[in-house]
Design a protein that fits this description.
Length: about 300
């Protein structure tokens, strides 16, 4: 990147995810200007003050805090983490009504201040909230997408790696569909450099199912133990931001608006997408087998009820 290149990121919401995302982005050196917005201005200012004291050890970035959405102006990327968090015993879909009300207030303010930005939705239920953001904002679908199953897939890759003794980064295996209980693992093309995962010695159908269940239920376990999740999603946010900034066209499973994807349209859920400076540069049609196509249809059916 040229030294005069600027990349401003505004994070909406200074809760556990927003604050940790700001920290992850600062450590990774992605933003040249990192702006944190929270309705509790003092909280945002306190987080930024704490982060400022780490600047002697990180790449330099301008750090600002506000309760005013006009501070989003000139943002390249806006990360929305604001909303009611998932409590123990709740599914992500239980948060729909409360978070829709919040988005009806904040999205118009974001669009007024930063009409040319890319919006990354992290707030749960992320698929429904991504659709809501598209509907309210009127922005092009390539510039509004959700974190979707990027973290589910990372968890999935980790659990498989523990079973087969291969680094997670070398494992091409993904969870698609809803970021929630109707998600599904794609075993039909899960591989390590072309070798199908299911052909690895001592890896069984039962292990495969366990890997998926552990990935799907991870958030419930973490929320039970800690009260919230933040570190892994913050790392995923930093990964997404860096790939937008660097215009890599790397592929991730992200929640996007479908248009005749295996016959499905007008719903947001996770499918493979190439990320770049314009946001979603391309949506790839994953080669799903018959069972996986049925699972995709189930995710669509469930999510459309909440739109």
């Amino acid at each position: 990147m040229h030294k005069d290149y600027t990349f401003k990121i505004s994070i909406i919401g200074g809760g556990n995810v927003g604050a940790t995302a700001a920290y992850a982005l600062l450590l990774r050196g992605v933003a040249t200007h990192l702006n944190l917005i929270d309705v509790q201005k003092e909280k945002a200012e306190g987080i930024i003050l704490d982060l400022e004291h780490s600047l002697p050890f990180t790449s330099y970035a301008k750090l600002t805090a506000s309760d005013d959405f006009s501070s989003c102006k000139d943002s390249n990327l806006i990360v929305i983490t604001a909303g009611k968090k998932q409590e123990q015993g709740q599914t992500r879909l239980d948060l729909v009504n409360a978070n829709k009300k919040i988005f009806q207030t904040i999205i118009p303010q974001i669009v007024r201040s930063a009409p040319d930005s890319i919006i990354l939705v992290v707030t749960n239920p992320v698929d429904v909230m991504t659709y809501e953001t598209l509907k309210i904002s009127g922005l092009p679908p390539e510039r509004v997408f959700g974190s979707g199953t990027i973290l589910d897939s990372a968890r999935f890759q980790f659990h498989i790696s523990e079973k087969i003794g291969i680094h997670p980064r070398s494992i091409d295996a993904y969870i698609l569909g809803e970021h929630g209980d109707s998600s599904f693992p794609v075993w039909s093309f899960a591989n390590v450099l072309g070798k199908p995962i299911m052909e690895f010695e001592n890896f069984s159908e039962a292990m495969a199912q366990q890997c998926y269940e552990d990935a799907k239920n991870a958030a419930y376990r973490i929320i039970h133990d800690v009260g919230y999740t933040c570190y892994s999603i913050a790392t995923a946010i930093a990964e997404i931001a860096e790939n937008i900034k660097e215009d890599t066209h790397q592929v991730f499973p992200l929640s996007v608006l479908l248009k005749d994807y295996y016959g499905h349209s007008d719903v947001c859920l996770s499918v493979p997408c190439a990320l770049g400076k314009n946001g979603i540069e391309r949506i790839l049609k994953a080669p799903l087998d018959e069972e996986e196509q049925k699972a995709l249809s189930k995710s669509v059916e469930i999510l459309k009820k909440f739109q």
